[in-house]
Amino acid sequence: MSSGGNTIYDIASAAGVSITTVSRVLRGEPNVAQRTRTKVENAIEQLQYQPNAAARGMAGGKTGTLGIVLPQLLNPHYAMIYTGAVSAAIESGQNLQLFSRHDILGKGASALPALMNPHLDGIVLYLEYPQREGLEQLEKTLNEIHRSMPFVLIGTVAPELPYPAISYNMAAIMKSTVSYLTGLGHRRIAFIGGAADSTNELRRDIGYQQGLREAGIIYRDDYRIPCSDTLEAGSSALRQLLDHLPRSEWPSAVIALNDLVATGLMASARTYGLRLPDDLSVIGCDNLFYAPYLTPSLTTIDLHQQQLGINAIRLLLSGDSRRENAAWHLIERNSCRPYF
Amino acid sequence: MSSGGNTIYDIASAAGVSITTVSRVLRGEPNVAQRTRTKVENAIEQLQYQPNAAARGMAGGKTGTLGIVLPQLLNPHYAMIYTGAVSAAIESGQNLQLFSRHDILGKGASALPALMNPHLDGIVLYLEYPQREGLEQLEKTLNEIHRSMPFVLIGTVAPELPYPAISYNMAAIMKSTVSYLTGLGHRRIAFIGGAADSTNELRRDIGYQQGLREAGIIYRDDYRIPCSDTLEAGSSALRQLLDHLPRSEWPSAVIALNDLVATGLMASARTYGLRLPDDLSVIGCDNLFYAPYLTPSLTTIDLHQQQLGINAIRLLLSGDSRRENAAWHLIERNSCRPYF
DNA sequence: ATCCAAATTGAAAGCGCTTTCAATTTGTCA
DNA sequence: TGACAAATTGAAAGCGCTTTCAATTTGGAT
Q1: Cβ(A80)–Cβ(A70) below 8 Å
Q2: Are A53 and A28 in contact, with CB atoms under 8 Å apart?
Q3: Cα dihedral angle (B169, B174, B175, B177), rounded to 10 degrees?
Q4: Which of A38, A330, B110, B277 has its CA 20 to 30 Å from the CA of residue B298?
Q5: CATH of residue A275
Q6: With 70 as the cut, is the pLDDT of residue A42 above it?
Q7: What average pLDDT does range A279-297 have in this prediction?
Q8: Residue finishing a domain among B16, B31, B57
Q9: Is A97 close to B97, i.e. CB distance below 8 A?
Q10: Which residue has the higher pLDDT, A201 or B104?
Q11: Residues A146-181 as b or e (16 or more Cβ within 10 Å = b)
């Protein structure tokens, strides 16, 4: 198998020392005489030696490999996070192993420990927390993982759980989004978002309602359409919204779960003869790469995903168990217009 | 470390057999008495045993892990391939480890063997073949990899190299794209594509010129703009194209390297007051998820990326060393219009 | 020159598995 | 019933590393 198959033994004999010593310099232990260290380093250089990660892991040492669990990659939102994470990992000489949730999480977070099988030095977890899984169950799972390796939670996070985390303050983001629209004069603001069985969406709803309340707007149930995470769902959600309302009560602005949904919804709006943004303001979330190129260009929330990925890895590596909020900001483009 | 830490020894004693026997049933060896097999299987079930992949790899057995090398993931083109690949891997009980090229290929394919360090059962390689790397160098690298694990090449492939592969016939695709446009009556057809230092782009150019020739159109150097793989590059490439041409010679159609470039280019076109598709037909490649939602919706080549990912894994697993072409088809939408 | 602590090195065990190879059991045919 | 091949099992080595723990060397201090 191993083609370049140089082992620690080869280095040892080349340098005329024991494998223990080689192992020492490999791991950067301090108590090695400078002369010896140099000899070994030369041998390593000469033979192009590369430590075998599997053997390392098995011997109980660091593997130099981190992991990241992400729901999927087709949504660029996650791909950005991944990309940030890899770059940070590389920067500190680590490998990053991706587990796209699809792999393993058919059964929810409880399936996670199974994938901890490969020995990782730590893992970044982007989980979703459906209510039904229950906090107790989740906590149990996380405790189990915690016993075998450090981790940090990102994205949506259960604030009740005392783990290192970088999370989106969805309530704040949502409230701010609503405020932006009310600031533009909108009063009929719909929200096309997720079903409220995940912590994430629950918080969004809270923020949505807070935002409305602050502007003295009464929450309407029929302005709140549940919707999954795709373009098509966005399209049909808007149809569902409009079809159940007399034209006079159609919203003047709609907040989409994310840019995917916003994209779908915009196409749908046109089929109703709605001009964008004149007849309907749309705001998304994620700031996907093509958002500026839609017609009209999409106003959205930039979630700084790459930076999130970077920060997650750094936090993981730091060993710190800090809990912080992820940065974000609203990007004004042309899909929202003042309403009079 | 190992939290659920059940080893083959635990199973062995639970089942009252030797670890050798456990190993046998684990690997599905035939010569185990049915009674024994059942006992062991029960023990495995009871103790929720999960074989340790690292140990396996080190002992020289199958690790149950495949790898895939992809240039990056921000372009959904690759994310789709990855997604297909994971699903096929899961389906056959394998893990899939992603190496996004960024990780390791700073120095070109020659850096590949280094990452073969983790013992993989096989790997899917999506490489790009810049001319300068040279076929000899590449071949050497591939041979080296070949010695340590089976692989299959996907995407663009050097046809001279006798390795299992699923490749895009870029020349055919490109020729067909040109024909589509000439069929619509276009005569001034520009091509905004990659620099011709990669095999991939070389073939596209060949197809482009073939397509033109077949329609009796003379190739113009100034209709051929080199461009990298991004929206922004697409934008500026179009500017470069138009700025160097008198309005009367502006192309009536433009073929973009891919949908990313097409997207950027369309935005740019509008700044020149060009109406799409009336004044300019645009055709992309990749059929990214948002292509139907652009204005106008983008005519493009669907590259069946998920299926490619699936097929690559299957081919890898089959051990077959077949070489085949990847499927594709043109999707007509609204960004191209007949030209009179 | 002598002695002891500190610094440096190495021997050996063990991580969890696969893989010969040998030992034992079983089954079959005479 | 005995003998021999086939089927089934197990002992032990080894994969490449880390990690005690003990042995050796070094360097001051006396």
Answers
A1: no
A2: no
A3: 130
A4: A330
A5: 3.40.50.2300
A6: yes
A7: 97
A8: B57
A9: yes
A10: A201
A11: eebbbbbbbbbbbeeeebbbbbbbbbbbbbbbbbbb
Looking at the structure, tell me whether residues A127 and A246 fall in a common domain. Answer: no
A chain contacts of residue B87, beta-carbon cutoff 8 Å: 102
Compute the distance between CA of residue A296 and CA of residue A281 in angstroms, rounded to an integer.
10
Contact B113 A147 (CB under 8 A): no
What is the rounded CA–CA span in Å between residue A224 and residue B259? 34
Least CB–CB distance from B79: residue in A73, A95, A116: A73
How far does Cα A232 stand from its chain's mean position?
22
CA distance B285 to B257: 6
Residues of B in contact with A295 (CB under 8 A): 294-295
How far apart, in whole angstroms, are the C-alpha atoms of residue A105 and residue B257?
A: 36
Q: Would the pLDDT of A3 be above 50?
A: no
Count structural domains, chain B: 3
Query: Between chains, do B102 and A86 touch, taking CB under 8 Å as contact?
Result: yes
Range of the domain at B185: 170-302
Q: What is the pLDDT of residue B1?
A: 38
B175 and B159 within one domain: no
Residue B131: per-residue pLDDT: 61
Q: How far is B304 from chain A (nearest CA, A)?
A: 14
Tell me which residue of A107, A72, A289, A83 sits closest to B84, measured CA to CA. Answer: A72
**Closest by alpha carbon to B65, among A212, A17, A57, A110?**
A57
Cα–Cα distance, A195 to A204 (Å, whole number): 10
Dump pLDDT digits (tens) for A86-144.
Answer: 999 988 888 898 988 665 555 566 666 666 677 789 999 998 776 656 677 788 888 88
Question: Between the CA of B213 and the C1' of D4, what is the distance in angstroms?
Answer: 79
Other C-beta atoms closer than 10 Å to the C-beta of B15 total 22
Task: Report residues of chain B scoring pLDDT below 70.
Answer: 1-4, 101-116, 129-134
Tell me how crowded residue A93 is: count the other CB atoms within 10 A of its CB. Answer: 7
- Do B282 and B206 fall within a single domain? yes
Mutate to test the interface with A, among B101, B287, B293 (most CBs of A within 10 A): B293
As given in the structure block, the two tokens for residue A229 are 């995470």
CA distance A309 to A66: 13
Pick the more confident residue, A109 or A238: A238
